[in-house]
Design goal:
alpha+beta, 268 residues, Fumarylacetoacetate hydrolase, domain 2, 22% helix, globular, binds manganese (II) ion
Length: 268
Amino acid sequence: MPTKINRRTALSGAAAGLALAGTRAEAQSAANTVAPLFPLPQTIIPIAGEERGFPVRRIYCIGRNYAAHSREMGSDPTREPPFFFQKPTDAIQFVAIGSVGEHPYPSLTKNYHHEVELVAALKSGGREIPVDQALDHVYGYAVGLDMTRRDLQREMGDQKKPWEIGKSFDHAAPIGPIHPVAKVGHPQKGAISLAVNGKVRQNADLSQMIWSVAEQIAHLSTAFELAAGDIIYSGTPENVGPVVKDDVLLCKIEGLPDMSIRIVAAQA
Ligand code: MN
């Protein structure tokens, strides 16, 4: 008499846990029963006034979210639904309050651009999050830079290829500390600006976002299951432009401390 083998009995241990796991959390806990071959550092952003930091799971970025910036990129801001891309988690470069972060000019580009952005950090997530509940998932906010190899981004766009090389490289996501909602609320209006060597280049208001942070979370959650640790770069206003070695960038968002970096020579 043949032995009846079903899927469940054919698998064992962690493999069974992985194969049969119904949720992401179950799958991860099964995977964690295997010891790592080498240590892998977790990306953690310090939180202002807190001992513990914010562990980063994913970095989402929205494109063309201020009308004037959308036009300068050659798009029509009135007809475009929101779209997103990701940066790798280890692209984070943390910059402490009152310091000037040394930011290496990246390889391959000859047109390296600044994009100052408000960043929202999630303490929880889910799928199909309604707009009116979206902000309940936000832990806090930070000042960030979506640094961009513009020439490579454009080249890839022209060829209908992914933006990866223009957006998702090492150090591409400078960020200041996260400020809890309990202290700074939900910034929805107020100045957002960036100066290079003391000269203001970008200067707009958070209220000019086409898609609010709440709408961004709602949209993202239709495409991805969001979770605690996800952060969202909420888009940059107009007048993005190039930086070169020795430039000092000063980023300001009303209600949050400034964030500053200096462009330094490429790393050997
Ligand atoms: Mn951006």
